[in-house]
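Per your request, structure below.
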């Protein structure tokens, strides 16, 4: 919500001036390797730019967002106390999804945590995006055309890093709902001058036929859908690895950090994965992306863009910063939007940050081990905590397993909570052996039910593999 005061306008103008100072409007890449010189900025310069942006964004948020103003006042912190990265981390506690959700419930339909009010929406509104709402009230975010330009450049850096060049073309296979990922890629392909064949609103067989007829080089969808579509093509007697597809641009689900899944999908398509990592709250763009130097078998990681966002990791209990190289939950400060600048927002995926130089020359921090476990997905079974992706890795590692699996959590008559993992395998007699494999991989005891291959429903878009039917 905007306050119709001169301070609101003044601070917005000052914030946008800083954004514009570092904005490039590229339609062609800097050179063979990088879309922008920002990818290789020195660490000192990256920090100086972050500091300058924080000093401008804090007063802007105070004057233009009721959510932020209330929080500053409640904490007894002045916007001028947030002068740079260090003073922000010292003075500004991490913002959680819960806080945003409460604000969204108290101030429907938009909440007050964004800085795109009615005036900006009417003047230069671009698109509305929404969190999935799977864990509570959906939080919505309105972005402007001003933001769109920043979004396109950030995503172009990601797509170019992943390998997309002139001559490539995209086939987005998504529902085009209010989710940032596919829209971000769509607009960015246009900015980069790469053609698009729209692939929405049709089934797998129709999309398989489109791939064969129009020869796109780049598929844009969730990882689950890549697996699904590849199997559909095989059922049609076709080999996905023999198609025109070279790049697999994915978002929306953990992927490249799940060992077994990345290889399975890359091998199926004979193509290279390019993963977008990010969140709806701190858009308008991905925050992280795949590295051109990454080879199968290396520890997975993604590059983050620090000139436009500050990335930190915190411990899950106190939400205090952890030392570099230690595992923690991701926290993002978004310094690249007039609509949804955010200070220390808890994105909540586990990773380790590394400033070690990368072979590709990009100087920005990396998320190591990839970001494969959003803390919201954590399963707590009798006090043992684990992520569904840990089960996924164990299932993928067992020879002969099908693509699908399910995790079913139930309560027995005696009140004990138990887990059954349903696995596809041609040999029904393997259940004990697979249970043992899961136990040795995850240190979790479970029962395994083996079903024949291709009997579990195929996941099309976002995978739903956990069914929690425990008594609460
Ligand atoms: Zn790299």
């Amino acid at each position: 919500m905007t306050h119709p005061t001169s301070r609101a306008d003044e601070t917005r103008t000052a914030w946008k001036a800083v954004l514009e100072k570092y904005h490039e409007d590229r339609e062609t890449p800097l050179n063979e390797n990088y879309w922008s010189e920002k990818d290789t900025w020195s660490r000192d310069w990256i920090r100086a730019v972050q500091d300058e942006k924080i000093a401008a964004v804090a007063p802007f948020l105070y004057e233009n967002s009721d959510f932020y103003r209330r929080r500053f006042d409640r904490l007894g912190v002045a916007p001028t106390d947030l002068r740079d990265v260090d003073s922000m981390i010292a003075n500004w506690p991490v913002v959680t999804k819960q806080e945003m959700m409460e604000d969204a419930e108290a101030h429907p339909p938009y909440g007050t945590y964004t800085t795109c009010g009615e005036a900006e929406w009417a003047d230069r509104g671009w698109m509305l995006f929404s969190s999935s709402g799977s864990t509570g009230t959906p939080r919505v975010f309105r972005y402007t055309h001003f933001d769109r330009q920043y979004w396109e450049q950030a995503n172009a850096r990601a797509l170019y890093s992943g390998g997309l060049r002139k001559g490539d073309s995209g086939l987005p296979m998504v529902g085009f709902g209010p989710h940032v990922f596919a829209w971000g890629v769509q607009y960015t392909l246009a900015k980069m001058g790469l053609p698009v064949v729209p692939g929405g609103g049709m089934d797998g067989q129709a999309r398989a036929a489109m791939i064969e007829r129009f020869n796109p080089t780049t598929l844009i969808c969730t990882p689950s859908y890549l697996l699904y579509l590849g199997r559909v093509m095989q059922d049609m007697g076709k080999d996905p690895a023999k198609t025109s597809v070279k790049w697999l641009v994915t978002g929306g689900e953990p992927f490249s950090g799940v060992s077994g899944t990345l290889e399975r999908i890359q091998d199926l398509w004979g193509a290279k994965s390019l993963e977008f990592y990010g969140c709806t709250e701190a858009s308008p763009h991905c925050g992280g992306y795949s590295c051109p130097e990454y080879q199968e078998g290396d520890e997975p990681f993604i590059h983050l863009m620090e000139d436009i966002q500050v990335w930190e990791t915190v411990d899950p209990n106190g939400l205090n910063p952890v030392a570099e190289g230690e595992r923690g939950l991701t926290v993002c400060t978004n310094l690249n939007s007039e609509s949804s600048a955010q200070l220390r927002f808890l994105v909540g995926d586990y990773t380790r940050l590394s400033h070690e130089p990368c072979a590709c020359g990009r100087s920005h921090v990396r998320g190591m081990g990839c970001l494969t476990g959003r803390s919201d997905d954590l399963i707590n079974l009798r006090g043992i905590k684990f992520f569904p992706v840990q089960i996924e890795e164990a299932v993928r590692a067992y020879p002969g397993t099908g693509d699908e699996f399910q995790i079913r959590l139930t309560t027995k008559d005696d009140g004990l909570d138990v887990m059954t993992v349903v696995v596809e395998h041609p040999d029904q007699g393997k259940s004990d052996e697979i249970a043992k494999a899961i136990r040795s991989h995850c240190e979790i005891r479970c029962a395994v039910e083996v079903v024949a291959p291709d009997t579990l429903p195929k996941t099309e878009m976002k995978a739903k593999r956990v069914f929690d039917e425990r008594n609460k």
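Residues 291, 293, 303, 358, 360, 362 surround zinc ion (CB under 6 Å).

Regards,
D.
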